[in-house]
């Protein structure tokens, strides 16, 4: 996440770039960010349902 914060300048940071800079497998990063996105989406959905109910 620190890499994203340091290298994003109002545009998306490709996972391939992070993978190369950090020496982390691209497939591992894809899994990590996929799981992260699913969890964040679920929390946003639950909050919206609770607030509007």
Which H/E pattern describes the elements?
A: HHH
Rg = 14 Å
Oligomer: single chain
What structural category do the secondary elements indicate?
A: mainly alpha
Estimated helix fraction:
over 70%
Shape, per Cα inertia axes: flat
Count of all domains: 1
Give unreliable regions as ranges: none
The number of helical segments is 3
Q: Can you give the mean pLDDT?
A: 79
Number of strands: 0
CA-CA gap between termini: 33 Å
**How much of the residues is beta strand, in percent?**
under 5%
Protein name: Iron-sulfur cluster regulator IscR
Organism: Vibrio maritimus
InterPro entries: WH-like_DNA-bd_sf
Spell out the key features of this protein.
single chain; 53 residues; mainly alpha; 3 helices; 0% strand; Iron-sulfur cluster regulator IscR; WH-like_DNA-bd_sf
Can you tell me about this structure?
The chain has 53 residues and is mainly alpha-helical. The protein has one domain. Helix content is 77%, strand content 0%. It is built from 3 helices and no strands. The mean pLDDT is 79.
């Amino acid at each position: 996440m620190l890499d994203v914060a340091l290298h994003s300048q109002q545009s998306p940071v490709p996972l391939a770039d992070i993978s190369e800079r950090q020496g982390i497998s691209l497939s591992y990063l894809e899994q990590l960010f996929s799981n992260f996105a699913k969890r964040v989406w679920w929390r946003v959905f639950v909050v919206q349902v609770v607030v509007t109910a």
